[in-house]
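User: Show me an example of a complex going from sequences to structure tokens.

Assistant: Sure. Here are the input components:
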Amino acid sequence: MTGTGGPPALEAVDLTRRYQLEGVAVEALRGVSLRIDQGEFVAVIGPSGSGKSTLMHLLGCLDRPSSGQLRVGGVELSNLSDTRLAELRNATIGFVFQSFHLLARTTALENVALPLVYRGVGKAERRERARAALEAVGLGHRVRHRPSQMSGGEQQRVAIARALVGEPKVLLADEPTGNLDTRNGVEVMAMLDRLNSESGVAVVLVTHEPEIAAHARRQIRMRDGLIEHDTAGAGR
Amino acid sequence: MKGREAFAMALEALRVNRLRSVLTMLGVIIGVLAVVVLVAIGTGAKDEIEKQISGLGTNIILVVPGRITLGAAPTQSKLGLADVAYIRRVVGDPSKVTVSLQSGETVRVGRVETFVTVIGTDQNLVNIFERPVGKGRPLSETDVDTRRRVAVLGSEVADRMFGDLDPIGRQVTVSGARFRVVGVYATVGQTFGLSRDQEIHIPVTTAQRLLGIERINGLAVGASGPDEIDPLSDRVTAALRDRYPGEQFSAVTQTALLGTIGSVLGMLTGVLAAIAGISLLVGGVGVSNIMLVSVRERTREIGLRKALGARQRDILAQFLIEAVLLTTIGGLIGIVLGVGGALAIQALTPVPAAITWWSIALAFGVSAAVGVFFGVAPARRAGRLDPVIALRAE
């Protein structure tokens, strides 16, 4: 199933990304074009060094391409200031990381509410929305707990709640099960599945595990900075 | 992000690293403490000296020959009693002019011998300098006119020479000549470390004969009010310059004296404050240092916050507020300790200490400024971190 109307969630045309690594020019992306519609569930797979993390950073507006165009939620990125880029990230992208990236000394509720702080949402509303997001991932009873008091699976669910609290258009998950055991991994993937179909958020999953990638309805395989294969046929 | 959020966030970060925060603040605390205490001591010394100058009496013009400078020795006086009579005519009211001829002399009573300031003066001194007589009588016009060998003692001299005995009517030997004590002054205290209770006053005419000179050291004119001081001193010095063409005369007024000494002591206080300010600056360097460490430690957190939508200015604000909180909280603690310290010094030691609002406001303002100044570099570094690199940091 692709598309729920409106502009594509993500649209990239001929993206390249070069950088210097200890004086050596590295071409991490060599011309990537793809289009991800709202509500899609896509897995980006490929060996390490294939450019999938770089692509992920570009799609997440954490980095800027060396050339090519990128539209996120219909907004062209190339002319945006760093500030506007941060605001776009806040409004349209939700991140889930392999290592959870929760603030250690902060409660689950406050961790989840953090994106809303940068959006300028008032405290009462923040708490209410964060609580609702935690309930949606089945952690309504853990709001006062700190990351150290929770299992890895629970921590990743807190991170998913944080990614979704701002109601983004795209959820970018970078090896979300990489630090989890099989059971927790399965649970987290089931949750992403469910959120994708219930809320219509587009999910882009970066992984090197075929079983995890199998959850996605579309798979993009990368190699040497290029899309090698796209099951939707939208890439090269 | 709203200011209140950034504030709460920064406060939380300081709370989490409590020990480190307190140690970092310590530099600022000590700096502010030093500023408040040293300025209090400087101001206390100034107040004390101003009080002593005021204790000399009000609206007095001291007229001395020459020009008062630090570059030259005092001018040898050429003034005599005829000049005093002349100035009395210039001023109009003879009772407003008095005279002084001073000399350190040995004074003896029986076997008790002491070295004191002997001042030859006249009957007008007690009124012009507001010098109350405790016992007996002051010098009279007749004492001066007839060169009587009479003396009025400072209270300390009287105590030392006569102990419990009543000195009135007894003999003292001043520089080999015998004098009869006619009065004892009430205790008045010190001026510039010289106790005015250790003086002996004798008629100026008697003093001239005793010392074998015709001159006097200077004269003092009492003005009837503060507004009269400047015109009167101009009139007196101009009259003396008319009488002695080519000579210099200076009028020292209490206001001028207060001004000069006030500016010297103000400078001293400033120097003390500056030295203390340097330690505050060193405290600021410590804050800068710890903030850099904190930015490095929290690189991943910064990367995450950026990924979640924190703008450069949000991160900058967070770290800058943290630095400013460190220095202002340190500053407040330093002020409390400094005020306490100054009060303790005032209460427990002879050193005078006066707490001034400006030093407290300055110390607080400077500590906040130090926070901004030394917090900007680490905060900018944090704000500019590349989120991709920051997220990967260990």
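The lines above are the inputs; the final block is the predicted structure for all two components together. Chain B has 13 helices and twelve strands.
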